[in-house]
Amino acid sequence: MNRIILKWSLDLAMAFALVITFVTGLLKFTLLLRVTGLNSFILPSALISDLHEVSGIILGLLVFVHLFLNRNRIISMTKQVIGDRPADD
């Protein structure tokens, strides 16, 4: 698989996992539920919690893979940023 396609697919999967995690996090937010009048009869709380946790774990794993694939660029940019700073005396 082409590395560019792999990174694009990874970014797309991260965005999808982020949306699921964010939306389920909002649905778990009790103040929002009180304001909107939603309750556990309308929304299955256990399913939302499970989906939130699983999507959060998947998002975390995808971020680690993303960082691994971009490690050379991260190291290079870190060296540039640290190297450009004047020494504090």
Short description:
With 89 residues, the protein is mostly helical. The protein has helices spanning 3-28, 30-36, 45-69, 71-83.
Characterize the structure shown:
There is one protein chain. The protein is mainly α and 89 residues long. It has one domain. It has helices spanning 3-28, 30-36, 45-69, 71-83. Helix 1 runs antiparallel to helix 3 (45-69). The longest helix has 26 residues, at 3-28. The radius of gyration is 20 Å and the shape is elongated. The mean pLDDT is 85.
Low-confidence stretches: none
Structurally, the number of domains stands at: 1
- Biggest sheet features: none
Q: Mean pLDDT score, rounded?
A: 85
Strand content: under 5%
**What is the alpha-carbon Rg in Å?**
20 Å
End-to-end separation: 50 Å
Count the helices. How many?
4
Shape: elongated
Q: Could you state the oligomeric state of the chains shown?
A: single chain
Total DSSP E strands? 0
Based on secondary structure, the structural category is: mainly alpha
Percent helix = over 70%
Element-by-element helix/strand order: HHHH
List the helices and strands and how they pair.
Elements: H1 3-28, H2 30-36, H3 45-69, H4 71-83
Helix pairs in contact: 1-3
List keywords for this structure.
single chain, mainly alpha, 4 helices
